[in-house]
Amino acid sequence: MKATQAISALSALAQETRLGVFRLLVQRLPDQVSAGDIALKFDVPPSTMSSHLAILTRAGLTRSERQGRTIFYSADLDGVKGLLEFLVRDCCKGKATECNKLLQAVLPSCCP
Question: How far apart are CA 60 and CA 78, in angstroms?
Answer without folding.
Answer: 8
